[in-house]
Amino acid sequence: MRLFQRTKSIGLLAAAVAATALVPLTAGAAEAAPSGYAGSCPTAGTITQGWHSGHDGIDIANNRGTPIHSTGPGTVIVSGTASGYGQWIRIRHDDGTVTEYGHMYERLVSANQRVTSGQLIARMGSEGQSTGPHLHFEAHSSTSSTRGMDPVPYLAERGVRLPCTPGSTSPGTNFTTWGTSVRVRSEASLSAAVVTTLTGPTPVYVKCQKRGDMVHAEGYSNDAWSYIPALGGYITNIYIDHPDAWLPGVNPC
Questions:
Q1: What integer is the mean pLDDT of 141-161?
Q2: Which of 8, 12, 32, 100 has the fewest Cβ atoms within 10 angstroms?
């Protein structure tokens, strides 16, 4: 268990964590690559068509009016009509990826609007080139991507397994980090390569945790590390915002 509240200044945080090699000491190193997000279920239903060479996303069918939710936090970059889709929405997420939603009969967000993970954004319809009510969902690596990636592993890396039910998540798997300039490493070791750096509190999906190097920082000592699949590496559990040193509900790696 942690023994006291985290109330030290950012300056003291940087000094303490630098001693354990968790914080980069140069201003340039603080510029982190975009981090992944803790995902939310886009909609309930049955997958009627998967991702393949002739289909850039997946189709999830349900009744007309079924709620559609943003899979993660971000900014709406498109909300309107489109050939083939009838109506569509595109959201650029904080990790730089883009999700796309099509065929809805009602849109509830507008371009440039900020949305949160799990926010209701539309209702399922059958507009455009469609044979019945369903959500066509795509995931893209960036705004310039012309070919969607397979949404199933994309969502799985963010803690969402399809089919899913909006509002339900696996207990103890979605957390938030705390602190600034926290290094994400390729292994649960202080000598492992740094794959990215978190510049501030970040929602994360923890796939599993394991024992690794003992870390001493901010008055805490812990040898437990969490694996964040969306970031491709591990962070010490000291920087997972939870009072327990070993996270409840998270399986060992």
A1: 90
A2: 12
